[in-house]
Design brief:
29% of the residues lie in helices and 22% in strands. It is an alpha+beta fold and 99 residues long. It has one domain: 2-Layer Sandwich (Hypothetical Cytosolic Protein, Chain: A). The protein has a 3-stranded antiparallel beta sheet with strand order 4-3-5. The termini are far apart.
């Protein structure tokens, strides 16, 4: 019998829905205190996840959910980079096989 691979699930801080980790955009607070986007999902530090949906990002920004999740202020450049990344993604989100 083939082994079924477990797909990690994470919760979006905007809509609070559980989704596959690969479908979400990770924001990470490094041990030094810097905040950046993590496209590979492997950077060390505290991570928070947001859907590739601009409405989720707006809600997370309005409610300061990312600030609470990471216990730090989020620079406007990080929000701008997240918006740019969402604009660059196709409407269907990440395609299968994308890393």
């Amino acid at each position: 019998m083939p082994k079924v691979k477990k797909i990690p699930q994470r919760q979006c801080v905007g809509c609070r829905e559980m989704r596959d980790k690969r479908e979400l955009l990770r924001v990470v607070k490094s041990p030094e205190g810097g905040v950046s986007l993590d496209f590979k999902g492997k950077q060390p530090g505290r991570g928070a996840y947001v859907c590739h949906n601009p409405d989720c990002l707006k809600k997370a920004r309005k409610t300061r959910a990312l600030e609470r999740a990471l216990s730090t202020a989020i620079p406007p450049e990080v929000y701008d980079a997240m918006e740019a990344e969402m604009d660059a993604q196709p409407k269907g989100g990440l395609q299968n096989g994308a890393s």
